[in-house]
Amino acid sequence: MKKYIVKRLLALIPTLFVVSVVIFSIIHMTPGDPAAMILGDKADAAAVEALRESMGLNDPIPVQYINWVGRVLRGNPGRSVFIDKPMTEILKDYMGPTFALTVYAMLLATVLAIPLGVLAAKNRGTMADQGISFVSMVGISMPSFLLGLLLILGFAVKLQWFPVGGYKEFGSVSFLTYIRYLTLPALALGFMEAALIIRLTRASVLEVLASDYVKMAKAKGVSEFALVMKHAFKNALIPILTVLGQTFMALLAGAAVVESVFNIPGIGRLTVNSVARRDYEVIQAVVLLVSLINVVMCLAVDLLYGLVDPRVRLED
Amino acid sequence: MTDLYAIRKKLLKEQRQLLVHKFFKNRLAVTGGTITFVMLFLALLAPVLAPQGPLDMIVTDRLLAPSAAHPFGTDTFGRDVFTRILYGARVSMAIGFFVGLITMAAGMLLGLLASYFKLLDEILMRICDGLNAIPSTLLAIAFMSALGGSITNVIVSLSIVSIPRMARIARSAAVVVKGQTYIEAVSAAGASPLHIIFRHMAPNILSPVIVQASYVFANAIITEAALSFLGVGVPVPQPSWGNILYEGKDVIYNAWWMIVYPAVFTALTVFGLNLFGDGLRDLLDPHTS
Amino acid sequence: MREKILEIENLSTSFKTERGIMKAVDGVSFHVEKGEILGLVGESGCGKSVTSQSILRLYDEKYTAEYEGRILFDGCDLLTLGEKEMRKIRGHEISMIFQDALSSLNPVFTVGNQIMEPLLIHQKLSKEEARKKAVELLTLVGIPMPEKRVEQYPHELSGGMRQRVMIAIALACRPKLLIADEPTTALDVTVQAQIMDLILSLNKKLSMGVILITHDLSVVAETCSRVAVMYLGQIVEEGSVFEIFDSPSHPYTKGLIQSIPRMAGERARRLYMIPGTVPLLNQIPSGCRFAPRCPYVLSACRKRTQELLETGAGGHRVRCMRFAELETKEAAPVRAAGEECGV
Question: From the CB coordinates, do chains C and B have 3 or more pairs under 8 Å?
Answer without folding.
Answer: no
